[in-house]
Amino acid sequence: MKKMLTICFALMAAVVMNAETTTTLWTGSDTAAWDNRIEIPCNWTTVSEGDVLTFTAVTEGNAEKWASFHLLSAAWNKVVTDLKFPYEEGATKTCTFTMTAVALDSALNAGGLGVQGLGFTLKKIELTTGKTPEPAVEDLADSVLWTGEQTIDGWGTNCLALNDSAFIATFKGVYTCAANMYILVEGGTNPDLRIAGGWGEWNVTAYPADGYNHMGAKDEDGVVKVGLTMDFINKATTDNKGFFIWGNGGFVVKAIGTTKAAVMNAKPTALETVRVLKNGVRYNLLGQEVNEYYKGIVILDGKKMLVK
Of 215, 212, 54, nearest to 125 (Cα)? Predict the structure, then answer.
């Protein structure tokens, strides 16, 4: 009996220790500007990776209709970039940021964090600790969501808009839980790949590297792995908002799918890029013309055959 009580008290203590708590760090009315660093007053030693900062602001004063901000160290070095409030003139909006190891290290060792931005008046900053972590993302069954050739080169231009009804219907049918998404890319010079929520949020996927450049997760085969949270999936499929792949560096998006195998298999082969296959002409699997003495798999009049 004593042992059972001890176990019960231990479990109760664990629940209390892990309880989610939201604390208001700052309230006021401070107009954001690129030359105005608004300090976040916080004892950063009590903050852990995975805790969440929530910013509340009135979006206003920008004729270009956007409200963007960065988190800066005390030395004005950018720690987190491209946080955004959905812009609506005079409306109160929120934006959340989940503390990463990089941001926490800067907060602890570089004089804390502050806010710098444009297009809003900051009203409140809150910190939520003890949040239950998102379920670990896993791979789903093989499924190809999109194939094509979309060059991404220039902020705000040449983005890949994944917000048409057919794509969203497919996406919604596949992503019913938190899971990985794989993007096959080719080429580019110092490529920078980011994902923007169609509902106006940028930092919404599970694998943001410094500056939210997902290219840090690209492997040797040119496949970028991105973890999708349930929050992202729900917002992408609500009112057909969808999402966008954008960035810089002149890279080409070739395929998007639920597994690496799916996008690698979806990659067009050299044969598939041949526009006209002539009747009566033999081709190898690379789409090259061969003569009648060629040994191996041959394609003739659209049919494969093995020549020994």
Answer: 54
| Cβ pair 118, 31 in contact under 8 A | no
Those residues whose C-beta lies under 8 Å from the C-beta of residue 33, and which sit 6 or more positions away, are 116, 117, 118
Mean pLDDT (the chain) is: 82
Asked if residue 277 lies in contact with residue 199, where contact means CB atoms within 8 angstroms, the answer is no
* Element (DSSP H or E) covering residue 262: helix 260-266
Question: Does an H or E element contain 101, and which?
Answer: helix 101-109
Expressed in angstroms, the distance from the first to the final Cα of the chain is: 80
Kindly indicate the confidence band of residue 251, based on its pLDDT and cuts at 50, 70 and 90. very high
Nearest to 57 by CA among 78, 34, 79, 86: 86
Residue with tokens 């070095």: 77
Across 197-211, 238-252, 287-301, which has the greatest mean pLDDT?
A: 238-252
**Closest-CA residue to 116 (of 32, 220, 223, 5):** 32
- Degrees (nearest 5) of the Cα angle 56, 59, 60? 145
Q: Helices in 18-77 by DSSP H: which ranges?
A: none
The candidate with the shortest Cα–Cα distance to 103, out of 60, 142, 47, 143, is: 47
Region at 165 (left for phi over 0; alpha for psi -120 to 50; beta for the rest)? alpha
Confidence label for 165 from pLDDT (cuts 50, 70 and 90): confident
- Angle at CA 178, nearest 5°, toward 92 and 133? 70
Q: Which residues pair with 273 in a beta bridge?
A: none
Q: Which residues contact 105 (CB under 8 A, 6 or more apart)?
A: none
